[in-house]
Amino acid sequence: MSVAPRVTTSPDNHLSQRPDTGELVKRLGSRLRQFQSLRTLATVSYWGTDGRGGFQEAVLVQRPDRLRLETLSPLGAILIVTVDADEIAGFHPREGLFYRGRSSKENLFRYTHIPLALGELTSLLMGLPPVEIPARWQDGEGSVYWEIGGGGKERIAFHPTLGVPTQWERSGADGEIELSALFSDFSETPAGLFPLKIVLENPVQQRRLEIRYQEPELNIVLSLPLFVQEKPATAREIPLESLGG
After folding, report:
1. Which phi and psi (to 5°) does residue 112 adopt?
2. Domain boundaries, given as residue ranges, for the chain
């Protein structure tokens, strides 16, 4: 499915006035319901204390708890990771290794290096702030924020004319940002405006991840077997926890 060129603002898509907090929260809730599945190719670039690099990735997402990532090379996939609510499996075809472990935030981090739970990560990869709308929220002048456990905060900023979320931040009790995401290059799709670029920053790890999508397909039917893997007969199985991290 092809995607139209990115959106440029015009009088037709400008908001007549800055919406109040209730309206922003309403729009956020609408977007969280709007996007449920994704199939796309992506170019991924990363920067960190261990260097920088990049790769091509096939991404399949079924919210809230199914994910498939295939790291690609000119000769085919070099890593296939599947995740559902019960299990995470990673197959390394070149090495003939098959890692398996329970579905948990810790095991997901071992493969993605992103400190998010599965439901949060599937939302993020679909261009959505990885949040559940809380009962209490406050106005931040074009943004909304709320307090989370331990004295931290989550904040979401919105595009001043398109009215879609463009930034998410999670900060600790000390006010320092622990994780943030930027959503940009919005494109018109049958499911609504969708960001073709996502930038995730982790100041704690000193790591930055940039994802650029190519012709995403949204809200399509993805069969459940895509999100599980059986160990190939010739592969050696290793507990996922042995990867450390």
Report:
1. -100, -20
2. 21-240
216 cis-preceded (ω within 30 degrees of 0) = no
- Residue 159 has φ and ψ, to the nearest 5°, of -60, 135
Chosen CATH of 21-240 out of 2.30.30.100, 2.50.20.10, 3.90.550.10, 3.30.360.10? 2.50.20.10
pLDDT in tens, 72-104: 999 899 999 999 999 999 999 999 999 999 999
Tell me how far apart the alpha carbons of residues 84 and 4 are, in angstroms, rounded to a whole number: 31
Q: What is the pLDDT, as a whole number, of residue 25?
A: 86
What's the confidence (pLDDT) of residue 141?
76
pTM: 0.90
Cα–Cα distance between 199 and 42 in angstroms, integer?
13
Amino acid at 156: I
- Smallest CA-to-CA distance from 88 within 132, 54, 121, 50 is with 121
| Residue 65 φ/ψ region, left for φ over 0, alpha for ψ in the -120 to 50 degree band, beta for the rest | alpha
Find the helix or strand (DSSP H, E) in which 122 lies. Answer: helix 118-125
pLDDT digits (tens, 9 = 90+) for 148-197: 878 899 999 999 889 899 999 999 999 999 999 999 999 999 999 999 99
Classify residue 245 by its DSSP letter: -
Q: Which contacts of 49-55 are long-range, i.e. CB under 8 A and separated by 24 or more positions?
A: 49/205, 49/206, 49/207
Q: What is the pLDDT of residue 60?
A: 98
